[in-house]
Please model this.
Amino acid sequence: MKLLNKAKFLLEITRSQGIARRYFVVNGFDGALTMLGLILGFNFSASTPLPIIINACLGAAIALGVSGISSAYVSELAERRRELLKLEEAMLKDLQASAHSQAARWVPIIIAVVNGSAPLLISLVILSPLLITNAGIVLPIPPLYLAVILALIIVFLLGVFLGRISGVSWLRSGLQTLLVAITTSILIYFFTGN
Amino acid sequence: MIAVKKVVLDVLKPHHPNALEFCLALSAAIENSTVKVNVIAVDEKTESLEVFVKAEIIDFDLIQGVINQMGGALHSIDAVVVRNEPDA
Model:
């Protein structure tokens, strides 16, 4: 709890909550659409063994996670260091002992974790029907279809989340992101479907 | 025992944490204290504060530590009240 409060405080003094939220949605959306694309690609292709589909999707999910962590860390670290330098110039003081210096070290890590974990966790949720079926549990709906449904639900929920943040209609915002996912699905069908 | 009872400080600090967060952090560090903060001037990245601290015993190093931790800089001590009390 103390660690959470500290993270909240550091995000607050650097006004980075919005950035973390944006990264979560942007990369979460990336994760969901990537999984949707992969699963639809497998759906439209000749029958592929489930372990191969899982490995391909897990590989993409891990790559998205690592890419999210590293890219956000590098860019945020540079941004926070620049902000700290500018603040030190304005204060005419070395701020190494301050919470601002701590924030310059920790906020990039927090944002990198958010940025990397969003696509990874969302991908794992979407892949869960495949993992469950692979573990020997029989689902009432074919796992690939269930994964597509889960991906569409998550994309819709991300839209709802955005709608609630911006104060516009959550339904409209959810339907907008859902429309993006459906358009993506149609494009995939045209290019890969038989 | 000589005890500092009240100080008035001129402090420069970044916009964040804001005056309320700054005031709360100072108050949390000093027991039975009353802390008042007036924002005197606001610049592009900084603001100047007039900070009043009143307590039974003020540990000045503690105040300075909190100001540094919040990214502030103590510019001057503008007023002090010190009391010499007989030891209990």
Summary: Chain A touches chain B at residues 12-15, 86-87, 90-93, 95, 97-100 (CB under 8 Å). Chain A has one domain: 2-7+16-192. Residues 2-7+16-192 of chain A form one domain.
